[in-house]
Every structure is written in C-alpha cells, then in structure tokens.
Amino acid sequence: MTPQRPQGPKGPQGRQGSQGRQGSQGRPEAARTSCERCGTCCRKGGPALHEEDAHLFHEGTITPRELVTLRAGELAVDNVLAANVPADGAQAEPAPLAREIVKIRGRDGRWTCHFYDAMRGCLLHGRHPAECRALACWDPSGLAAMYTQGRLTRRDLVHAGALVELMDEHDERCAVGRMAEQAAEALAVHVWREPGAPLPPGEAVDGLLEALRYDAALRSVIVERTGCTRAELDFLFGRPVAQVLRAFGLRTTRDADGAPVLTPDRDAR
C-alpha cells in the first residue's frame, strides 16, 4: 500500500508482475524465471508485515524507527488486488484503507525500501519479510495469494499498557475517517472563497485544527520525555496528521503567531 501523499509514488503494493522485458535492441527478452536482484521492487516500496514477520520485530532485526503505520481510512494505492487499477498500467486511484498496515518505511523522501542499498542490494536478504519472499515479479500470483492474510498491526507488536492506551487515545482524537469527512466539508465551503485563502473557522476546520494541535503536542512531549525518535512515533501513532491531511487536499502552514492554518493543497487533489 502506498499513501497518496506526501512521499513519492508507489509502496510495496506498487509491485506489478512482468512477463518479459525489452532487450537493448528493443526485442523482447525471455520471461524471467528467477530473481536478478535488480532492486526494482525494492525501489517501489518496502513490504507490509505479516504474522510470520513478528519475530523480526521482537528480535530487533526490524525496529520501530524503520517502520511506519498507515492507519485505517488513509488514502493509499493498491496495485496488486484493488479494483481501481487501470488496465493501461497507469497509476491506480487511491482508496481508503479498510484496516491499518504496518510496513517498512521509505527513505530519502521516497517510498524506496529503507533496507535497500543501491550498491549492496537488500540489507535484509536472507531475513527479509514474507511479502518479499513471496514476490516474483514475473508471476505476482504468489504475492497476491498471501498479501492480505495475517497482516500485523501495531497492537500485535506493542504490548506495553501505557503505550497502547496512548495509541488508543490518539486514534480516537485523530480518527482518520472523521478527519476525511471534516476535510471534505471544509473544502466544500472553501470553493466560494478566494483561491489560496486559509479555510475559515467552522466546526469542521476547528475539529481538524484541534487534531493537528493534539498530534503535534503529543509527539513533542514523547520525544522530550522518553528519547523516542520522530521516526519511531510514525510507527506508534501513524504518520503525522499534517501529512495525512495532504491526501485529503489540505496543507498545513503557520500564522505569524505559530498557530496552524489550513489551506487547500492543489497538488494533493
């Protein structure tokens, strides 16, 4: 799954099968039958984690700072199973996630797998997650067969009571489905205003600003008091609300006093 914004296109589910390639003279080459470790699938995104990958987390092979949670309701592109994949191979349309996904985060501002190195290839090779083992780019049926089965969530991996309570509170106060509805309502009002103008106060906008303030404050306090990195918080609480809202067409800026302000994001729609 790949969020619509703000990182680059395509996540692990951006991987598509290929029955052959063009040779250097433009002639089709024989179809692949084994992995050439070219890195194409790795550059399109890291995998989501499944039950058989839990040991990689618990033994420290994959740590929270290398993961990101896509929460239920976020807009994401599914190029493996979704009905919204165009027949012409164009980018699929994003759709709300039915349930959360924990996946290996991207790097360098893109969705390239965090563990992919251009010179050395996969840094987890031999210990790589189930989706990577199932993927054969010349025949994606193996990935498709297991790809929605036994996916891990944060609560499968985090058992500390205080953290789980914080995650539950954050999910309630920053519920993605509610923010999507509020964003749509706020943008519907904005069409009658000057382009680029901040969204005016109102119930929907006020609700979004409250979620933004709470999310930012919670992350800052946890970093200051526990030493957690911002990257680790993207696993515990999902991506920052400001990033999630961009997929719904809203950009977060600051006014002269440093308070958050919402404006339509033309690039995200």
Number of strands: 9
N to C succession of SSEs: EHHEEEEEEHHHHHHHHEE
- β-strand amount: 5-15%
Number of domains: 2
Q: Profile the largest sheet.
A: 3 strands, antiparallel
Strands of the widest sheet, in order across it, are: 1-3-4
Radius of gyration: 20 Å
Q: Uncertain runs with pLDDT below 50, 5 residues or more?
A: 5-29
- Tell me the span between the first and last alpha carbons: 18 Å
Structural class: alpha+beta
* Helix residue percentage: 25-40%
- The helix count comes to 10
For the residues shown, what is the average pLDDT? Answer: 84
Summarize the helices and strands and which ones pair or pack.
Elements: E1 2-3, H1 40-43, H2 54-58, E2 67-70, E3 75-77, E4 95-96, E5 101-104, E6 116-117, E7 121-122, H3 130-134, H4 141-146, H5 154-157, H6 161-173, H7 176-190, H8 203-226, H9 230-236, H10 241-247, E8 250-254, E9 260-264
Antiparallel strand pairs: 1-3, 2-5, 3-4, 6-7, 8-9
Helix pairs in contact: 7-8
